[in-house]
Amino acid sequence: MTDARGVLDYAELVHRAVLLAETPEVREQLRAAYRVVFVDEYQDTDPAQVRLLEALAGAGRELVVVGDPDQSIYAFRGADLHGILEFPERFRTNEGEPAPIAVLRTSRRSGPTLLGASRRVARRMPLTRLPAEKVRAHRELSPAQDGPAEGLGQRVDVPVGLRGAGRARRSAAPRSSGGRRRLGRDGRADPHRRPAQRDSQSTVRGQRPGRGAR
After folding, report:
1. CA 55: distance to chain centroid?
2. How many Å apart are CA 21 and CA 108, to the nearest integer?
């Protein structure tokens, strides 16, 4: 809707884009302009965004989406998990077959301990309408051999406002009161040496900006 100053909010902006993109003339222009469309964080899309995507890349056109149904956390602002669960049927191939699903089996974000904990939680959540073998493979992620290390003193914080389950950020290394990092003999942050004064910025804070088809 439009406020008193004539400014559109995000939902109304997407709604008007959908109405425009669904007109036959504009839809054909858009589809001719983009040979392939890529969408990240598809689990966080809402129905209006799915309609917009259909106008851009429906009818069997080249479309690649990436998402994790276990990390759908934005229902409070309209995100609908059904979008990713219904994707294979809603965006069928030119031959009329359900869209294929490729499972990424290696996690490069988390070490073995954090990954194992998140997988145990995820296995308790029902996940229907996707092939059972794909769901099982998705929830049996393996950590990368060269992924994040899990050594002494590498504390993991999950502040409110970060990007979701399993998406943690490490706290910054301890700093001295002069703002310099305290390092051990190996050049890493020394977890046993405490600064005389805690730096107010020593813990990483996360904030996720608003976005479109995330």
Report:
1. 23
2. 37
Look up residue 200 and give its two tokens: 């107010």
Residues paired with 38 in a beta bridge: 64
**What distance in Å separates the CA atoms of residue 4 and residue 22, rounded to the nearest whole number?**
28
**End-of-domain residue from the set 91, 115, 148:** 148
28 and 72, same domain (yes or no): yes
- DSSP for 89-139 reads HHS--TTSPPPP-----EESSS-HHHHHHHHHHHTTS---SS-HHHHHHHT
| Statement: residue 89 has pLDDT above 70 | yes
CB 191 within 8 A of CB 153: yes
Q: How far is CA 119 from CA 44, 113, 135, 136, 145, in A?
A: 20, 10, 12, 11, 18
What is the predicted pLDDT for the residue at 148?
64
In whole angstroms, what is the distance from residue 188 CA to residue 153 CA? 10
Judged by phi (left if over 0) then psi (alpha if -120 to 50, else beta), residue 104 lies in beta
Res. 195 pLDDT band, cuts 50 70 90: very low
Mean pLDDT of 80-107: 94
In the structure encoding, which two tokens stand for residue 190, read together? 């020394």
DSSP state of 82: H
Based on the domain organization, do 53 and 134 belong to the same domain?
A: no
